[in-house]
Amino acid sequence: MSRAFNFSAGPAILPESVLQQAQQELLEWGDCRASVMEISHRDKAFVDVAARAEANLRQLMGIPESYKVLFLQGGATQQFALIPMNLCAPEQQVDFLLTGHWGEKALKEAGKVVNTRVCGSDAERGYRGLPAAEIDPQAAFLHVTPNETIHGVEMHSLPDSPVPIVADMSSTILSRPLDVSQYGVIYAGAQKNIGPSGLTVLIVDEALLGERKRSLPDIFDYRKHAAADSMLNTPPTFAWYLAGLVFEWLQAQGGLQAMGERNARKAQMLYDAIDGSDFYRNPVDPNARSWMNVPFTLADDALDKPFLAGAVERGLLGLKGHRAVGGMRASIYNAMPEAGVQALVDYMHEFAASHG
Ligand code: PMP
Predict the structure, then answer these.
(1) Is residue 177 within 8 Å of residue 158, measured between CB atoms?
(2) Which tens digits make up the pLDDT trace of 146-171?
(3) Catalytic-labelled residue, pool 68, 192, 266, 320
(4) What's the CA-to-centroid distance between 288 and ligand 1, angstroms?
């Protein structure tokens, strides 16, 4: 057996060298004589791993000192509700800019704990681009989804906002450099560009965590998590350790500048293959095309099954599109090498030539 190129949207491909390192030290980690999974999260050895992961993430993203970095659980979905619960009183209003499925989900969940308003949406066009936003200056914050994983719509710049921006970066975090100080909150489920599922990273401007706006159980309270260095209860230690290895891998690749350049090349290669043929189609406006998730359809959807079967035979996995949009989707996160995208493009050319 050999490892295939995995284009899954998440959980997703991880750097092979990271998996190899984890495999090598799985039974005996450092001089612990036990697995990193088997030791207490309060053990100094693990506390050091956790602190190093945070320090490396801060270095990679240039996170200002005035921001807290929390390592949480519950996925991005839990944060859809916890962010408004931590940042707003129930009677306050939050604005949502909708560019796809996940923004809609965030809106629905937030609506259960705070007032919500849609300040811009591309829903009518089926989420193919970036709508204008009319942001209420009275809103507690603006919620955006900078990369919509299903629709393949990415905001390559932020809207001008009079209020703090809260960004669900689940599928684009660490894919290129960004200015953290432009955001009030950045959050992401780990299972795309960070590590295995089970871990959620939340980066929050301390200024937004001032006075508590409502009563919260401790486990839902970001202030409590921050005060406890994200060890209020037992954290997902293995996922945290593995995320730390991914951060070290990113540093060794040259950091986010180098990743951004590589990711731009990978995306270009794939969009060129799609645009250069009459057989494939991507519906997203060119200025909103995602670098991480590239949905595309074939000329005839009766060919979807043979396309997917042929892909699997060639070791190209996880290409089936989300049921909401159909067709194919290639997720080309940081850990997908350029050779993987090249292999996909070669296959697409051959398939179009024999079926077009
Ligand atoms: N937001 C985005 C942009 C996503 O891609 C996903 C998962 N695919 C989610 C939220 C939901 O994440 P989780 O499963 O970690 O709750």
Answers:
(1) no
(2) 999 999 999 999 999 999 999 999 99
(3) 192
(4) 19
- Name the residue of 170, 171, 194, 201 to mutate for ligand 1: max ligand atoms within 8 A of Cβ: 170
pLDDT in tens, 66-125: 999 999 999 999 999 999 999 999 999 999 999 999 999 999 999 999 999 999 999 999
Pairing assessment for the beta strands 200-205 and 280-281 based on DSSP bridges: unpaired
* Contact assessment for residue 56 and residue 197, using Cβ atoms and an 8 Å cutoff: no
Which residues 6+ apart lie within 8 Å of 280 measured at CB? 273, 274, 296, 297, 298, 299, 348, 352
Distance CA 209, CA 257 (A): 30
Query: Two tokens at 195?
Result: 């590590």
Q: Average pLDDT of 31-48?
A: 96
The model's pLDDT over 232-283, given as tens digits with 9 standing for 90+, comes to: 999 999 999 999 999 999 999 999 999 999 999 999 999 999 999 999 999 9
CA atoms in the 13 A half-sphere facing the CB of 329 = 26
For residue 278, report the distance from its CA to the centre of ligand 1, in Å: 32
CA of 182 to the centre of ligand 1 (A): 22
Beta strands, E only, the chain: 5-6, 67-72, 93-98, 115-121, 142-144, 147-148, 153-154, 165-168, 185-189, 200-205, 280-281, 293-298, 316-317, 328-331
192 belongs to the catalytic site:
yes
What's the pLDDT at 1? 59
Q: Which residues contact 133 (CB under 8 A, 6 or more apart)?
A: 95, 97, 119, 120, 142, 159, 161
The full length of the chain comes to 356
CB 266 within 8 A of CB 341: yes
- Would you call 275 a catalytic residue per the annotation? no
Residue 117 confidence (pLDDT): 98
Is 240 catalytic? The answer is no
Sign of the Cα pseudo-torsion (192, 193, 197, 201, in order): negative
At 214-237, the pLDDT tens digits run 999 999 999 999 999 999 999 999
Give me the amino acid identity at 63. Answer: I
3-class secondary-structure state, position 51: helix
